[in-house]
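I am sending you the entry underneath: sequence plus fold tokens. Let me know what the token row says about the fold:
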Amino acid sequence: MRLVRATLESRRGRILLGLLVAWLLWQGWLVLHAPSKVAGGFPDRQRVNALITLPFVPERFHILIFQRFGRVSGTDGNSVEVRNIDKNQLNAIARYYWVRRIEPLQLGG
């Protein structure tokens, strides 16, 4: 209890606590907002193909992140085609703040 009181009484402690609260709020917002980025219409199977849209042209960094979830098969403008994604991982991909939308990849696309 003394440690908590000493932390709150110091300027550094209040700044650290403020940063911690801000980070927790940011993480909470990402968790709550992620499902709204995932479109409906994905097939009823465990592995799916998705078209992930960003607000900008994807760079190597983004492609490498998506490769953790599935096989990147191409890009088109601001979108990345990712195949063979575990359907349970769609919300994890949507948690990235720079992902705008995740939709099922249409046949032939």
